Every structure is written in C-alpha cells, then in structure tokens.
Amino acid sequence: MLRNYLTIAWRSILKDKFYSLINILGLTIGVTCGLLLLLYVTDELSFDRHHEKGDQIYRIVSYITEPDKINKWQSTQPPLAKSLKQDYPFVQNYVRFFPNGRVAFRKGEKRFYEEDIYAADSTVFDVFTHKFIEGDPKTALARPGSVVLTEKTARKFFGESPALGQTLQTNDTTSYQVTGVIENVPRNSHFTFNALLSLSPNERKADGWGGFYIVSYLVLPKNFDTKILESKFPQLYDKNMASIFKRMGIKITYQLQPLTSIHLYSKLDGEANGDISYVYIFSAVAFFMLLLASINYMNLATARSAKRSKEVGLRKVMGSLRSALMAQFLTESVLMTVLALTASFVLVALLLPFFNTVSGKEIQFRELLRPTFLLIALVIVVFTGFVSGSYPAFYLSSFEPATVLKGSFNSKGGSFFRKTLVVVQFAISLIMLICTWIVYEQLNYMRDKDMGYDREQVLTIDYQDRQPRDRYNRLRNDLLANPNVRSIATASSPTSNIGGRTIFGVESNAGLKEMGFKPMVIDHDFLQTMGMKVVSGRDFSDKIPADTANGVLVNQAAVKRMGWKEPLGKKVLLGGLPQAGQPAPPAAKVVGVVKDFHQQSLYMPIEPMIILYRPNNGVIHIKIDAKNADKTVEFIGRKWRETYPDRLFEYRFLDQDFESAYKADELRGRIFTAFSALTILIACLGLFGLATFTTEQRVKEIGVRKVMGASVSSVVLLLSKDFTKLVLFSFPIAIPIAWYSMDRWLQHFPYKTDIGVGIFVVACLLTLLICWATVVYQSVKAAIANPVKSLRSE
Fold it and tell me: InterPro entries per the record (predicted)?
C-alpha cells in the first residue's frame, strides 16, 4: 500500500512540474533556513557542557549594594572560595583565576604578546575538563613557575617539537617552565584562555577581603540546593567584610551561577555573553519559516483542487475510502518534504562556511550528522509534511463524487482559508521586516552616538610588564616631530574600557563620605588628545605640579551623584576616610568637571568618575592624521623600536575596540536580516504560485472582459486588487506585534533609539510593493494574452 502511495505521489509531482518546483523550492528554503538556525541554537545551548562536572560547577557572583546603586560583578575576593571550602564540607573543590591580561612571552628570538593569560589554582584540571596533549593534569600547576599552554600557543613557540620541559620568559625576566599542553579551549566556552600560570607567592598568600579582581568557581554535589550555601553568605560578610564596608553603607552578598547557564543567562556589569532571548527569537524564526513553506503548500494545493477533483471523484466511485485519500495526499506532502530535506542538506553543506562568517560561529558539517540532529531533521520532515499536507488532505478528500464528476464543482470552498493563510504569511514577513529594521536602527544608533570623545584615528599602545617609562618623553618628542602625529597622551587604561572601582572619601552635603567611584589616571594632554570637554573649572596642567596630589577632575555623573550645586573646590580623599591609628590619606580638591563620556560600550550606563593626574601612565594614546595613516603607523613603530629595542611594538586603534563591543549584536543582526529576506522570498514564492493558478482559473473571464473593451491596465488592476487587500489586512496584525516585541527588546539597552512611525509606514509600503512586483508578471501576462485563444472553446 505504501509503495502504491509513493508511486502515485511521485507521478503527481512529475505531472505538474511548475507546481512541484515552487513547492519544493519553498520547502527547501524553509528547511535549509530551519536547519541553519537550529545549528546556531544548538551551538548556543552547548556552551560549557563538555566539562565532565559541568552540572556541579558554579561560578560565584558578587552583588555589591551601595546606598544609591547595585553592582553585579563576576569577580570576587581572593580568599572567598578558599574559605568556603574550609568552612563547609559540602564544597567539594574550588578553583580561582587571577587575571594577568596581556603578557609578552619570549623564547630565544621569538616574542609574542598573548592575550587572556591567567594564574590559576592547581585544582583547575580537577574542576574543568581539558584534554592534555603533553604533561600530567594532576601536577601541571603544582609547582611555582609552571605554565600550561594551549596547543595554539605552544605551536607559536615550539612548532611541532615537544613543548614539555621548555622554558619561557616574560619581559620582567620571570621564567616559566612548560609543564603541560592542552587542546585549545573549545569555542563554546564562556571562559577562554591561552595559557595558565601557577600562582605566584603573592597570589598564594592573597587574603584581603577588600579587592574584587579574581574569578572563583566551586564544585558542589549533584542536584545541590544552592540556597543552602547562599544562606551562609550574610555570616561571611559579618565575619570578614563588615569591618571594611559597613561604615560606607555597602552590603555584599553572593550568588551561585550554574556553569552551563552562564553564557545565555548571565547579565553582569561589563560582561559580554550570549542571550537566551536570541535563542528564542531564532527558534521562532526557524519555526515560522517552516510554517510559511507549509502555508505555501496548503495554498497551492487547495488552489489547484479543481484539477484534482475528478481524480478524487473517480477514486471514490471505485471504492476508495476517505482515509486512504487522506493518506495519499499526506504521502505527497511528506515526499516533497523529504526531497526538500535532501536538497537542504546539500545547501547547508555549501552555505555553512558563509553562515559561519556571518554568525561568527565555527560550526562543522558533522554536527548535522549527530544522532540528535538527525532526529530533529526527522521531526522537521514529519512536522512540515503533516502540517503542509493536513488541510489539503482533509479538503480534497471531502469532495462529493457526484458533484465533481458532473463538472459542477468549483474550488471556492477553500478560498477563505487560502486568503487567511496569505494574510498570515505577509503578517509574519512584515513583522520580520520591521524587527530587522529596528535592530539595525539600534545598532546604527550605538555606532553613531556621541561617546563624549573622538575615537577616530587614535592609536593606543600598552606598556607591558612594568616596562621602564623613563624614555617616554624622548619617544613623545620624536613622534611629535612628525606633522601627521597631532598629539600624544597617556592614561591608566584605554578610554573604551575603564573598569573597576576605588573607594574615595568624598565631600558630600552631609560631610565626608566613603564611596566607590571609577578611577582614571591621565596626564595633562589627555583631554585635548581625546577631544573631551571641561564644562566647569580647568584641565590639569603641567605648569601646576601640585595637581598630582592636590587636584582631581570629576565627570558630570559624579556631580549628579553627589548632588553638588558647586563642585569646584569639593574635597576628595585619595584612599577613603582616615582610620584610627592610621595616617590621613592625601587630600585633593575638585579643579574641573569633565563632560560625561562613555567609559565602556553603550550596553553600560555612564558611571561617576574621579580622574587623577600623573605625568606618565600605562597606555599611550596617539592621535594621527587620517592622511598617510599607514606611513604614520610605520613611523611610530620605527621610533618605538628605537626607544624600546627589547619590546614588541603592538598597537590597536580605539575605534576597533569600540566596534568589537558590538560585534556579537551585529552578527546576530546580519543573521536576522538574511532570514528576514528569505522569509519574504518564501511568501512571494507562494504568492507567485497562487497568482498563477488564479489567473488560470479566470482566463475566460479575462478574455470576455477584453472582448468587451477592457484595457490591459484595468485587467491588471482587477487581478492585483484581491492580493492587495490581503496584504493590507496583514498590516493591523503585524504592526502591534512587531512594536511590542521590539519595545521589549530595546529595554535591554540603557541608550536606545526611538521606534518612529516612519519605520512602520515604509515597511508597509515596501511589503505592498513586493506584493505587486510578485503578482504583476502573471497579471500582465494574462491581460495581454489573445482573448481568442481563451474563448475558442466557447
């Protein structure tokens, strides 16, 4: 029986090639997009699941509650995890990561700067699962002066030779022996590194509860109730931290984050992760694309029902049951879906490199062949096949044989349902179009928004490993001799990434108070180099050396936070309020107010800042002319090597840091745009096929109208009118849904664009134009046809 169904289904596909082509093409696009989006979603859901103890590992997150704000940090104090392990037996293990940032390693003549270098407890490989290529995970970081390299880092220095036992040095002449080489950290990890160092003596002894600068993880029993441990944190505060923070009105508690939920659910200050909302969005897009392709099938199947009505009538007269007819039509739709799935696998293999480029992923084709994904593909076939074939099967199998065999049958019974489906198709397409537009409006808004400083053509160079800075003035003078170098300044950090907070004693309206502020250290040329403005008071000056101890700048956010009506002259104690038995910290006064500028990306609000003056700092900012930029950079590099012959010359442009902050959202925006366009394409394919069958059914009517004197334009308008109405009906459905969805999405951004009426108007007009462009070909073709041919049988 099944063989018979398949044979008839195959013949039916070959009999009407145009209909079959449109259906298979629509299904192929829908299934291909569905598979690609599901690959993206499954990759997002796979983060950190390769660790054997992944369901037992928790990251400790710090919640620092100040009187006027709450800070959520992924960093903790060094003794925290160690104390928890000592005090609570159910804490099975812990590991801490001490950031070393960017480190210059050298081996003989080979020198490289490596990013993402951490010092870690020797327990790191007991907690996290990393496959060792060389070395023993149990002893790799047990001894001081040890380093474990990733395979990529090891190959930089040692090529294909064994790295185990080799020695690397840093610029501060510290030596590290390679005690292990591991496979590169999997891309689907929320935490990556290029090398791990054993803890230094100072890091091993670190016991201060005042500084938050490391990342801590615990291993707890399976299915552990984290509230048990979280309930102990207030006691921990009272015991170890109250003496430090209570007088400032600061409360500290912690939360335990399951390792496997960090990537998609963690939203901490300054942290860049994935977002579970995009998993939902892309899953919904995949579902809707499959639904649109299924709607196409249903529409075209019911539209051509007149052609198959006599077939149904004859089958019923010959004794065929309705259930058998339904099975036949469902077999046809499933067969088309299988053909589409086969073509989709080929397309996915061809498109995957491009998709990886667009999405920023590194998904391999073998992911498609995993049993789980093959099961998903089977579900897609069953879902799409049965959804797309269900209504035609019910509708076509319900024909009365006497009616259809007398020739009095017409297919208007499915007309309302077809129209409803077209409205749904274009409502979905319009929602996708509007959402894509607003996503790009937001990205452009963030890219173009005034950051409070000029980031264009600013080159930054980091001093590394406490390099001697006594030669900076020589370098500065050499560089300024080039007319293409406009100005040079130094600061404690790049302007695009000012992190951390420091406690200051600040004069408030109620007296001196200890409060946390973002600190920044700059020289007297910094504000001018960066194009920042002093809105009140003055800038630092090299002619006033006392500014290094007696003067500070604040930003407008700090003035607002303190409620100062006149900020100039307000006292700031560098180091907090004096404690009993301790010398008073240095005191300074506010000499100027700087216009607010963004210290990080626009995902973070502007924070109150206190800016200190020092003549020489760790990051050099060089403003260059846009003309001859390459030659200018080459000149800077030459002078750097002359000044620091034993140091690598590595630089970044400030706008590169800015762009990288929005890279993830831009990649998602590209994905959304591509699939929005394909959604509209699927809808247009269905509309084109529907227009073709509609004009075929009305060919004699058109002939009569032309004989009676109707013009080509009037016939085109007649045929386009019905489809125009359907698209217009989709507008009041799509607009509220799109507005509500994007309004919710924009709430995630502290600084966001407005959703203007113009977006909806233009999107609706564009959808209408796409509709007309789709149906006009068939309409014109029918309108200019010779009426004699269509009326010849009358």
Answer: ABC3_permease_C, MacB_PCD, Macrolide_Exporter_MacB
Task: Tell me the pTM.
Answer: 0.81
Identify the H or E element spanning 477. Answer: helix 472-480
CA distance 34 to 337: 13
Owner of token pair 């200051």: 504
The phi-psi region of residue 511 (left if phi > 0; otherwise alpha if psi is between -120 and 50; otherwise beta) is left
Neighbours of 289 (CB within 10 A): 25
Residues 6+ apart with CB under 8 A from 281: 672
Contacts of 726 (CB under 8 A, 6+ apart): 419, 422, 423, 426
- Which residue type is seen at 258? P
Asked whether the beta carbons of 292 and 425 are under 8 A apart, the reply is yes
Which residue type, as a one-letter code, is found at position 144?
A: P
Q: Which of 298, 319, 462, 302 is nearest to 388 (CA)?
A: 298
3-state class (DSSP) for residue 195: strand
CA distance linking residue 200 with residue 219, whole number of Å = 23
User: Phi/psi zone of residue 135: left (φ > 0), alpha (ψ -120 to 50 degrees), beta?
Assistant: left
Query: 647-660: b or e for each residue (b if 16 or more CB lie within 10 Å)?
Result: beeeeebbbebbee
Domain boundaries of the chain, sorted by first residue: 2-43+277-446+664-791, 57-265, 458-661
Beta strand pairing call for 502-508 and 511-522: antiparallel
Residue type, 1: M
Q: Which tens digit of pLDDT belongs to each residue from 583-625?
A: 767 789 999 999 999 887 777 888 899 999 988 888 899 999 9
Return the DSSP state at 365: G
Mean pLDDT of 459-471: 70
For residues 33 and 675, is the Cβ–Cβ distance under 8 A?
Answer: yes
Q: Which two tokens stand for residue 185?
A: 């950290």
Return left, alpha or beta for 457; rule: phi > 0 is left, psi -120 to 50 is alpha, else beta.
Answer: left
Pairing status of strand 652-653 against strand 485-491:
unpaired
Contacts of 107 (CB under 8 A, 6+ apart): 157, 158, 166, 167, 168, 169
Predicted local confidence at residue 110, as pLDDT: 79
pLDDT digits (tens, 9 = 90+) for 566-577: 999 999 988 777
Residue of 530, 404, 394 lying closest to 456 (CA atoms): 530
